[in-house]
Design brief:
mainly beta; three-stranded antiparallel β-sheet; Metal Binding Protein, Guanine Nucleotide Exchange Factor, Chain A; 10 strands; seven-stranded mixed β-sheet
Length: about 120
């Protein structure tokens, strides 16, 4: 497990962040939302994620309403989502929004969200 420091933002730059994450544990999912977005997510403790530009966000919950998917109302990019895990609050960061990271080159674990 290798944790590194990353920066990222939405397309228009209204939402920006820093995160300490291990990109050896990214997830792709086939739920109705992730499939359409093509998301590659990394899950981190909420304490490892910090907004450096806290522009307005719009949020969306679906299915079991456990995860708050947030996105920029200007450019529409989902930067992160917030939820809870057995270990406490987590943030799911969309690796597609990270600077200098090619999410297609990451070795992601598949999660069958469609079966949920």
């Amino acid at each position: 497990m290798t944790t590194a420091h990353y920066t990222g933002s939405c397309q228009c730059g209204a939402i920006a962040y820093t995160v300490d994450a291990d990109l050896d544990s990214t997830v792709t999912c086939n739920c109705s939302r992730c499939k359409r977005l093509g998301s590659v997510m990394t899950f981190v403790p909420a304490s490892a994620f910090h907004l450096t530009k806290d522009g307005p966000v719009t949020s969306y919950k679906f299915n079991k309403l456990h995860i708050e998917h947030t996105f920029c109302p200007t450019c529409g990019i989902q930067v992160y989502a917030r939820g809870d895990s057995p270990d406490g609050p987590v943030v799911a960061v969309n690796c597609n929004t990270m600077d200098d990271v090619d999410p297609r080159a990451l070795k992601s674990h598949f999660y069958d969200g469609a079966a949920m």
